[in-house]
Amino acid sequence: MSAVISIQGLEKTYAGGFQALKGVDLEIRRGEIFALLGPNGAGKTTLIGVVCGIVRPTGGRVLADGHDVVRDYRAAREKIGLVPQELSTDAFETVWATVRFSRGLFGKPPNPQYLEQLLKDLSLWDKRNSKIMQLSGGMKRRVLIAKALAHEPDILFLDEPTAGVDVELRRDMWRMVGGLRERGVTIILTTHYIEEAEQMADRIGVINHGRLLLVEDTATLMRKLGSKQLRLALHEPLDVLPPALADLPLVLDDQGNTLVYTYDAQADRSGIATLLRRLQDEGVCFGDINSRESSLEEIFVDLVRAPE
Predict the structure, then answer these.
(1) Does the residue 298 lie in any domain?
(2) Mean pLDDT across the stretch 55-79?
């Protein structure tokens, strides 16, 4: 699959000397949903700002659908829609006027039918004549999405799109994202709701301290880095683990009523048979056994926990 965004050796150092991006290389495939994860200050918003032409890089190169975002800014920016974190809109404009103006900014001819359908998809049609200042925070977020899509971009950036919004908007937004993807729009999102990335994204990139730590298919990442846990409900609670079991990856949970065994899901041998045999040898009796895999959130925390 061809790359719609190509990032090569991207660097950004701000005037105060802070280096926000450190040699980032990344290719985003046409038509995919790509999630960029990282803690606050990791470089996510700076990376998006560079690609969208808001932040000027100090090194490297970025192509958006073949257009250099610095040398061919206008052509590159026409391909991109951006939904920023901040609720920044013209408070005294109506919804219809601000969305129509956003389309005109990119030199697109009027298309009231498209804008009408866009507002309907975002549950904004009934508010089209309302001033932005009269809308709730959730409705203002919907307006930002409408503005980003008004010029029919091929690439859409969603920077923390569901932060602080209600469940209904979040559900509508992901339904809309699914529809955009079906039309071939490439979607790049940052989010603190890691379960959204796990459910929606084709691939995930993890960034920290300005460096891209990894890029991987979501399912492959879960398979490679995920661990499994076996939880054994004990018949009698334990205060401490028997010394003879100290060499095993075991911990007590639930006030000593549950024994948790963690193992590598990709290993040839899980060690479960050995575990059960040694528990029997030590006279540790258990009833129910349940297993679970690591969540993406746990994997993410492990990846960014290490210092720079």
Answers:
(1) yes
(2) 94
